[in-house]
Amino acid sequence: MKKYIYTILIAIISWSCTEEIVLDDILNSTPRLVVEANIDWNKNDDETSKTQTIKLTKSTSYYSQDYPVVTNATITVTNSSDQSMGTFAYDPTLEVYLSTDFNKPVLGETYFIKIEVDGEVYTANDTYTSIVDPNYIRQGLNTDFDPDGIINVDYNIDNEIGVDNYYLFKIEPPTRVTLLPEYSNADDKLISEEPGKNNYDFTYLEEELEPGDLLKITTYGISQRYNDYMNKLLLTAEGSSGPFSTTPATIRGNVLNETDEENRAFGYFSINQFTYLEYTVKAKSEEEVVTEY
């Protein structure tokens, strides 16, 4: 559905006495390391998953849209036995640290990142978590908001029995609908683990969808800590340019500065299993259409 954003203007009576301090904080904030280190492994495609990227930038003042890329860091990712998972080197063309030999992670294993830059050491860790393949996509019409019906796409997936699942869903509709993917996260606290009743629908409803539109759907199995982080990030990012545009300064990730704890980093290190599929929207129909996977 289209989202409408209402802006509330707040008058600050004491502006005259605080203007200089506030502007100084905004314009001259100390640059901090920003870490975009999502190691995402395609459950059904080991070969392409060997290529992984990590992006490092520096935060800037509030009014700047220029985020300087960090090019002089040394990055290592290891398993719990301190064995390297792959070699990362800076690629000036892509402006990311690139590994083309990343090893396949093991479910339930904890992995560690170490970033050394400008005399400081940053560390983080995350646990590699499973995801199941989808069961089917069911397309129907929702008449709650429009009597003519809005195309409704339900993505059905199993909740694993005996596993605490946390999910991150990413849907990329055609650029005609939106230029940005839509993200949603969930955990399985309210989902049954009883065999035969342990599947549920993730629903996508968009009034501008048309027959023939291509939806790109990615489902990640994420750790509880990453899920908690995404809860805060998605709430903060509503109405902005997306959850991964820039990390809000008030939201702390899991990256610690081992050298100077006051000079903390922004961003997150995660390692996630995912599934990917593409779905072509069918013609509008009062009858539900089910596509098995």
TrEMBL record:
InterPro entries: DUF4249 (IPR025345). This is DUF4249 domain-containing protein. It comes from Wenyingzhuangia heitensis.
